[in-house]
Every structure is written in C-alpha cells, then in structure tokens.
Amino acid sequence: MRAGKMDRTIRIDSFDAGAVNEYGTPTPTFVPLATLRAQLIESSTEEFLQAQGTVDRTAIIFRTRWLQGVTTSDRVHYDGSFFNVRETKEIGRRRGLEIRCERSEQ
C-alpha cells in the first residue's frame, strides 16, 4: 500500500452498549476508536425495490493500514456521513484492512 493513495480521512466509531446516561439507564452509543488515512476504492449507489417501496443504498469501500479490533458493529464517519461496517478483509498478513460500508440511516 502506498501512502500517496491514502488521500481521505475517516474516523472509525466503536459501538458501546454499556454507556450509562445521567439517569442510570443504559444508553447504546458510539465512541471514537481511531482516525485514519484511507484510500477510497469504490463508491456506488444502487436503487432497488423493497416492501416499503424504492430504496437507495450507498456502498463504499475503504482501504487503510491494519487496525486491530474493527468489527461489523462499528461505523465509519466520512465526509459528514455515517456508514455501517458490513465487512472487513485483512490485506496480506496484517498489512492493511479493507472496510466495506453501507450508508447509515442516522
């Protein structure tokens, strides 16, 4: 992986199910895990029919240096939008990480 191709900045947020609000009630939330430089591999938007009607789905793939602990319960913040992590792939022997995401409803 060449550093020159990593021209985007992304933030990976980790899901925290154990956070407690001021009233003592468990409140699921996301906490920042890491801010990374990444390469945007592919960005696509598909439109298809579902039970509720026409739905747009935006998929995006990032390639970055290896980071331990990224799971499908995390999300990526990129360009003012949130993307749910759908799949992670190890590149080489922990040299890099390919993160496949889908735009979040939030």
Shape: globular
The CATH level-2 architecture is identified as Beta Barrel
Cα-to-Cα separation, first versus last residue: 32 Å
> In the CATH scheme, what's the topology name?
Thrombin, subunit H
Order of helices and strands: EEEEEE
Q: Give the strand line-up of the largest sheet.
A: 1-2-3-6-5-4
* Count of beta strands: 6
Structural class: mainly beta
Query: How many H/I helical runs?
Result: 0
Query: Which regions have little confidence, pLDDT < 50, spanning 5+ residues?
Result: none
Mean pLDDT: 87
Proportion of residues in β-strands: over 45%
Please identify the top-level CATH class.
Answer: Mainly Beta
Largest sheet: 6 strands, antiparallel, barrel
Cα-atom radius of gyration: 15 Å
- Please bin the fraction of helical residues: under 10%
Domains counted in the coordinates: how many?
1
CATH superfamily: Protein of unknown function DUF3599
Pfam families: Phage_HCP
Protein name: Phage head closure protein
Organism: Agrobacterium tumefaciens
